[in-house]
Amino acid sequence: METIISAVILLGVLIFVHELGHFLIAKRSGVGVEKFSLGFGPKIIGKKIGETEYLISAVPLGGYVKMVGEDPEEQVTDLEKSFTNKPVGARLAIVSAGPIFNLLFSVAILAIVFMVGIKVPSDSSAVGNVRIGHPAEVAGLKSGDTIIEIEGKSVDKWHQMAEIIHKSPNKELSFKVKRGSGETIDLKITPKAETVKDVFGKDQQVGLIGIEPSLVTERYNPIIATLKGFERTWDITYLTFWAMYKMITGDISAKNIGGPLLIFQKAGEFASEGFLPYATFAALISINLGILNLLPIPVLDGGHILFFLIEIIFRKPVSVRSREVAQQVGIFILVSLMLFAFYNDIMRFLEH
User: Fold this and answer.
1) Average pLDDT over residues 78-102
2) Active-site pick, 2, 19, 194, 212
3) What is the pTM of this model?
């Protein structure tokens, strides 16, 4: 039940933020908004305030804002409030606002996380957790030790130490270690060759000894935290686009695509770990929701953006017939992607 509640709250908030972007920019542009709905399908509850009916609908996997004159063939009495009658720049801004709000919401979430404080791996060569049964533990390395030399080479940064260990699978290495008491000892440790996946899902063989870095808490003032929120959002966005490219080229398996079931599972896991992990996961999903909607697939925001860019270039709107055909293709693509994501989710569940 906790998993379902945490996932519904997560998706509800992110969908609300997305649709709020469309809603606010539409209102600011003078476009009438008939409906603001969280979810699709039959209405569960709703209330009309002014010209807009605010709804919660039965299917929670999305939402929509119904604007006056959104359909070019719709008969509209008040042309001033018609979406179609607005300049193409205004229409482009309204459609782009949803994904942009999702990205900005990620910035806001991550800024809060950085202000509250996050535990990050220290880049020092101090050892945190030592895994039982792994080469380091067998050789006598303990949590709280600091590695100061490997093979006679001085190290004081975790990445320096990791680089040497990763490049030495099945090769005995000499370690000089400083204990918490100040005592210095020598240890012989042979990194075990293991196959791990890099950030793009490709297998690579590295040497591992079974240690983790110590953790330190970092907190920032609101200005620095906001800048770091922008930086982290950009990093995740870039990595997401790069991973999508790698999937297209076949360097990353499409099995990594996840759907709603995976989101529900992970939302429950992160919620059980506390506020910061759950908030960080929410930021990640918000970024992915924004990127997904920017894809140039008709029926998604990105498809509408593409139509408007074509209109700007050729100085005339895309014909209604062309839009209808493109949207049918877009629906087919989107449904296919959703079914494939559901299939991956189910297979992942069955494998575990």
Assistant:
1) 92
2) 19
3) 0.78
